[in-house]
Amino acid sequence: MGRAEARRAQQQRGARRAPRGRGRGKGRGGKPTGIRRFFTWKKVLGTFFGAVLLGMAALIGLYFYVELPDPNADARAQNNVYKLSDGTVMARVGAMNRQIVSIDKVPGDVQTAFIAIENKSFYTDQGVDLKGIGRGVFNTVTGRGKAGGSTITQQYVKNFYLTQDQTATRKLRELIISLKVDQELSKPEILAGYLNTNFYGRNAYGIQAAAQAYYGVDADKLTLEQGAYLAAVLQAPSQYDWATAGPNGKKLVMIRFNGVLDNMVEMGKLDPAKRQGMKFQEPIKPKVAAGSEGQKGYLIQAADEEVKRQTGMTDGQLKAGGWEITLSIDPKKQAALEKAVQDELESKLDRKGRTVDAAVQAGATSVDPKTGAIVAMYGGTGQGEQWASNALRKDFQPGSTFKPVVLAAALERKSVTQDERPITPNTLYDGTSKRPVVGSDTPFNPQNQDDRDYGDPMMTVQSATNSSVNSVYAQMIVDVGPKNAKTTALQLGMKDRDGWPEDRPAMSLGTMSADTVEMAGVYATFDNHGKKVTPSIVKSAKHAGREYKAVRAVGDQAISRKTADTVTKVLTGVVEDGSGKAVRSSAYEAAGKTGTTERNVAAWFTGFTPELVTVVAMFGDDPVTHKQTSLTGTAGGGRAGGSSFPAAIWKEYTLAALQGGNTGSFDLEEADMGKVQSPSTSSSPSSSPSGTPSSSKSPSGTPSSSKSPSGTPSSSKSPSGTPSSSKSPSSTPSPSKSSSSKPSSPPNREPER
Prior knowledge:
With 753 residues, this protein is α+β, with helices and mostly antiparallel strands. It has 24 helices and 13 strands. Residues 144-148 and 681-752 have low confidence and may be disordered.
């Protein structure tokens, strides 16, 4: 048998064996079966390349089909009209503040600064960055944000020809037009268009207006450091403006500022040694825009922030105009609030002759608790002196105005003391100053105002609230659980920001940040029987091309009516017989709480009647360094607490705002003050570290009854619940060795009322 015949015989034998040993997915003759008939690697690869070719063909077709549209930036610019609640026009804002300059009027290193942070490949790309687009798509799909897909050319096209809408159609047009623009214009022309069309904040469109707004110079006089800041601020003008930015905003803009210079070094456009000597140049104070004098600028600022928040627009989109915005501000109440601040504070200050007075800032927000409408707001002495609204600033703590939130958390969660007594307004606590808290992993022993001991030593929660006793509320928040108290605060409308000390008993003293609008919402929720109130300053907003979704100012139950009514009842006691006595009047029934923060850098009075909730705050803000300074000595007096100027402003305003109306009484049908219960005398103070119990926790998060009581055993009580016998050294708890040591973090604080 020859070799050829042998091969044929072998093939025949293999063919006879094939039916018994077919490959998986193969039919007769070795052909694929099932789904594999449709998805072979050849077909998949062919389909992929076919789709790529079709996509390329479509892009080529679109390239020739799409024409450059007419520029829209100036043509579509309009005023925004702002009206008060009665329909009267308050201001017309939005005339385009722009002066076009040629690229040779912008220093070369400033041009490079923008390229370094925005598009390092600007001079070599074709107007689009395919890698960046892919990165942007990936970020969007994976939930990492929308950034990462725009070149300087694309941003110029978006600003000059298109809109800011984040749609696939707009993005595709941007891509095609960018390719065309890159072919038809030179790189310097594109860069000039980009620099002249961007919105930089402070109502400045284009680099010339921005140079004047931030540094008071023309664009051709900008230094590299100034240009680096403008390049950095461009990403988020509202957040990164040094005059209004909070700590986080300043941190972020400094990261971008340094990124500009570092990228220039990396590109070989800046000498490393020169880079080391460069320092940030702080911008000048913002100038007041025409039509924004007095309180108007602050009201517009608050309305703009709300509109942007509800629509997702940028500063530039809103400032492009076309909006008719009606505010909920009541002209009569607004005038009354401004007059009250002038009469009770500004007229008493000597801003030029007294250093303390020069640093005093005031802010206030007044809300209708039944509708959530902000009816009056005070932002400061005017944007020429104080650009950012004091009513909206979030860099100061609310102090003891937070204590009612702790009480609300205790009532809502049915929390108990360390010896298992229910917490109610009549629960007894130890009011000894610097008393170490029991049951906390974080040692804490705050002093009361003037280091005063209260209650001899036991006192009710009502009395502790009246006198704002720190030692009582420090123990109460441990009994409730700081995290539980934070949860209640968020339910009431406070915001969770960086630095919230959620696991520390010092939180009871209001050590988080908040603004007057937030605190007005919290107290309006108490006033509205527990239904959540989110204050809103925008009554309506209309635009031909955009939809505005109004804030849901009054929502569902945040806390139960029983809890809200009980807190309100306790706060009426503060006004009648506590630190809020300064606002008492036969003209209305009121509830409220004073607040004075650590080092007396802020003072608050938050009070309400059935018809009106008003928060008045004072802040110590050095006009040069903008560091927080003490208010002690304001107007030549002593300590300036919440019961001083803020309470006086609150009273004058409230009397005027309610004049001529029917003032009513609180409808507190579910208020539950509880019974006075003496603490158990059978338990002894804990000896475990930091007062932490060895036994398990109760469902509310507090230790079981085997632990020492939050208050100390006491002799017989008087009918009011206050001990009748004198306090002796043995009547205070014997803290553990760990608890008696100096607290580690946070430190002891000055009294906060």
